[in-house]
Structures are given as structure tokens and as C-alpha cells.
């Protein structure tokens, strides 16, 4: 390993930490000690792992590092929302949004630099795809968050498509819920997806975290015009698959529905949503559209959103309008990282 970059311990499972201990000639029990220092006490350096001998710490430091890094930038909103910019190990930038709300505090984390899905309404999609985040990159968004001790929930709704980076997302959620890791209940974690054929079933089978599906239009042709992913795995197929799973107990299923003026906000769309989701235990979150550069889309007026919500709720689907946060900073996901990348490009 001489001359190679040091390997991050953050993002390793207990089994992998046992492998590190064996490689370094450390006692087997030191793997759980390392896990406690990293995931329990959230140390920044191996030197802080004081129940390891000085000799063993020096061995570790020669090849390994904790792997955490502070935010590169941040913007604070008047409503308490904070958008942080993190530099990844691969040199890209991703956004993380901290959203306090009374006795709750939610962190919206990213899973990729850019995105392959190319949804018309998403700034991240306009960036193109630049790479997957590692579990280290994903967990660092929590680990190095200034407000980390106040967090109650995490949502994978930031930049990127989580199921397009499923291996690292599952690794991160496993560590968040493992007894040696953060020991969180899966009910505190929600993973959002456009719906990918190869990843959705595996996620449902291997994870107990909540699922949020980006729906945005119940008519396949219209959804495809907004979301190219519809062409490879359509919303009807997605719903058919979801109906084979049980969402009547702890795991929650929700559908995200960003509302665009004159595009997906008519009563015909509401009625089709009812038909599509009939028999499925779920909720719908209506989302206000934050305008992005180069998009001709506009948000639905507030009164029509409320009418849409009330119609769905009256007909049996619990529906909410998600509160808009951070309006006085770069509100739409991808704007801050795009600005940072453009700044970097100008310096070259």
C-alpha cells in the first residue's frame, strides 16, 4: 500500500473493520472499538481512538484515515434551512440540506454527482452524470454536519438517483441502522427514486427503509415527457410491483408529485392518480416547483394545489402539500453545486 492514497474507515461495515484489524495485526475486538469511535463518537482522526495502543494507531495511520471532511460552503436561510456543499473524494461537489422543523430535523442527502435520469424539471439532471458517491461520501454528509446531533430523519432526496448507486446507498443505510453503526430505526430513513427496474425490487427486499417514488404524472406518455426513465420502467409496472409488497405496517410508501402549471395539475390527473394507486397503502406529497434556469415549466398556483390535495384526500389518499423551505437561498436542488462547478471551471 506504500505510496497509495489512504483508505477511509468511515463507510466500512463491521466485517470490513475486522478485515482491517486482521491486516494490521490488531486484536479482533479492536474492530468494534474502531466502529464505536467512528459511528458512536464520530472522531475526526485515528489519534483520538485512545483505547488503541499508540503503536497500533500509528500502524493504522500509515494506511488509513477516518475519511471525514467539513462542508466546503454553506448558505443559511431565514427559516433555518441550511444548504451545505461537500467536496467528494472524487473531486466533485454535492449538496446536503438541513431542514429543522420544531422538534424534528431532517437531512436531505445526495447519492451521486450529477444524475443520469435527466428529468426536465431537475437542475441536477442538467449537470449530467459525473460519478457515484461512495458510502464514505454519503455518510460524511451526516458525519461532518455542524448540526448532526439534532438530526431525527434522513431522506435520500438530494442530487442523484439512489437506485442507480444502490450498492453504496444500501451500505450507507445498513451502517445507519446497524447496532455497531448509528443504530437508527429504518423508520427514520426514506429513499426516493424515479423507479429503476434493476434496483427497486432489490431495495424492497433488502431494506426496511421507507420508500418515496417520484411520480409527477399518472399518464405514461406525459410522465415520459417529464421523466425519460418512464420509457424503461413505466409507472404502471412500478405500481404493479409495489402492490406485491405490504406497506400496512411500519414501512411507509409515498409518492412525490411536483406540480406544474397546466402540465399535471388538472382534475383529470387527480382522477387518474386515484385509479392508478387504488388498493395501495400510500400517501402523496405535493411539491411546489422551484424554477430553474432554462426551464419553461412554472409552478401550479397555490389555490389549485390545495384543490388538488383536497380532492385526493376526500377520495381516500392521504395527501399533503410539502412546505417550501430555503426560498431565499438556492432552493432547487443542484443550483449551488452547479454554481460552484462553474466557478471552478472559470479558474482553470
What is the strand and helix layout of this fold?
Blueprint: E1 7-8, H1 14-24, H2 30-40, H3 54-63, E2 64-65, E3 73-76, E4 82-87, E5 93-101, E6 104-108, E7 112-114, H4 123-127, E8 129-132, H5 135-143, E9 153-156, H6 166-177, E10 189-193, H7 197-206, E11 210-214, H8 220-226, H9 235-242, E12 253-259, H10 267-277, E13 283-288, H11 302-314, E14 318-321, H12 335-347
Parallel strand pairs: 1-2, 6-9, 9-10, 10-11, 11-12, 12-13, 13-14
Antiparallel strand pairs: 3-4, 4-5, 5-6, 7-8
Helix pairs in contact: 1-2, 5-6
TL;DR?
This protein is α/β, with parallel strands linked by helices and 348 residues long. It contains twelve helices and 14 strands. The strands form three sheets. Strands 3-4-5-6-9-10-11-12-13-14 form a ten-stranded mixed sheet, with helices on both faces.
